[in-house]
Each structure stands twice: as structure tokens, then as C-alpha cells.
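User: Quick one: structure for sequence A, then sequence B.

Assistant: Sequence A:
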Amino acid sequence: MKTTFDVSDKLFELYHRVHRLINQSMTEEGVSLARSKFLFFLNKLGPCRSTDIACALNFAPRTVTEAIDGLERDKLVARQPDPEDRRAKIVSITDVGRIALEAAEHPRKQLIEEIFSALDDEQLDQLHEIVSKLVRRTDEIRERREQEEAVRPAAAAEA
């Protein structure tokens, strides 16, 4: 019988292998997996501030600024002044960025199909159910920890 740590290690191993393989294929098409996250976000939601991107993708603002610098240098995104705040810039995906994102998405989807073709429909449904259950449990734990964290400062202030 496998332990929870055996299964967890195997899941992490799978994630890292799939991530590396997809990143390599996407990079060969011109946009790495990391860069495609920014482009996908901008393509889906439209122009926005870098602070909005940082918040949505859960990245440090400095990381987003550096990524946008590189994407802008490669003409994949453009920055324009924010009409509501002259200190801020609005970032948007360019036509070149859309073309690059589209080109990189094809190998990603193809690899995912190829990897998951190892499972039949029933196994795929079971895996989806199991992973969904683990995602829900993870969310429950995160929410509980956030609540506990919120209670700590209040309890310390009362003491």
C-alpha cells in the first residue's frame, strides 16, 4: 500500500515533468509557459495595470514589472499611460503577442492530449474527481489558516 507521501511525491514528479516538457515545446514556438501566462491573462481580460496582473497571478509586483519589460522589448505587449493615473501604465497584448500566444498554445494542447491519452475515459473521470477533491480540501485548509491568522492579531491585541 502506498503512503500519502508516496502519492504526493509522484504527483509533484508528474507536475514537474509535464511542466518542463510543455515549457520546452512552447519555448520552441517562441513563448515560454511563464510568458504565456501573462499573455493569456492580457488576451482574456484586456488592457490593465501591472498591479492588477500581479494580484491576479499572485506574483510580486517586481516580478511582473521585469516580465513586462521583457515582453515589451520583444513587442509582445505595449504600455500606454493610464488616463486615470499619470504615474501608472496600462499594459496590453499586441498583435505580435497574440500570434505568439496562439503558436505556443498548439504544442501545449497537443502534449496534454498525448500525455492524458494514457488514460481511458473512466480513468480520466476518476482522476478528475480525485484531483477536484484534493483541490477542495486544499481550499478548505487555506481558508481555515487565513481565519486562524486573522484571529491571532485580534487575540494578541486583547492580551
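Sequence B:
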Amino acid sequence: MFRATAGVVGLLGALAMVPPASAEDNAQYSVLIISRERLEVATSCEIGVYLNDQLSGRVFQEQSTSFNLPPGPVDVRLRLLPGQAPGCGAGVEDQRSTRLVLHAGQINKYRIALGQNGLQLKRADLGY
């Protein structure tokens, strides 16, 4: 009986040390949405989204992906990824990235478009 009581008291003490979750902490992050909803990129290949040169997401036609990121600069690069569809093999591509400066509490939406130098990001309206 003593062991059970000591265990419950110890568990309650451990729970008291854990800080409570708070919705206020969401203001410390920025939301980055990258959309491929329009048919501006006429390929069935998936597009890889690289954040600071690390593959962070994959976007297919008519999809979008979002990231909760800390405020500050982030380098975003888009790349066609090899996949199941024919013609999606790796090839020579533009290695340039777009530097975005994110601010705390801000929602940023960009759409993927095909530009003069390959895939690029264009600012988009949030739509709500």
C-alpha cells in the first residue's frame, strides 16, 4: 500500500514539473504554405521542397504543403523528384534557392510556377 501511495505522489510531482501547453507559443512561429493547386507546372512529377538544402516536403498536382517555422531567413529550393511517372528522372537543373524572411505570427502562402530559370515561387493570396 505504501509503494502505491509513494508511486502516485511521485507521478503527481513529476507532472507538476512539466510546463503546460499554451496556444500563445504559436505566435513565435511563422507558417509557410507552398501550393501547387494551379496547373502552372505541366508535369505529373512530384516536386520536392527543400528548406535550407534539406528535403522537407513533396508536392503533387493540386496539393499544398505547410510548415511551422521559426522567424528569420529560410532558403527554399524546388526540384523535380524522380518518381513512378515516366520522364521524372534526375537531370541538370537550376540549383538556386529563394530566400524568404519569415516573421513571427505571419502566414505566408506561395504557389509553384514555371519561370524562365525553372521552378519558382510566386506569392499567393491566402483565400480566406
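The radius of gyration is 21 Å. Confidence is low (pLDDT under 50) at residues 18-23.

User: Thanks, that's what I needed.
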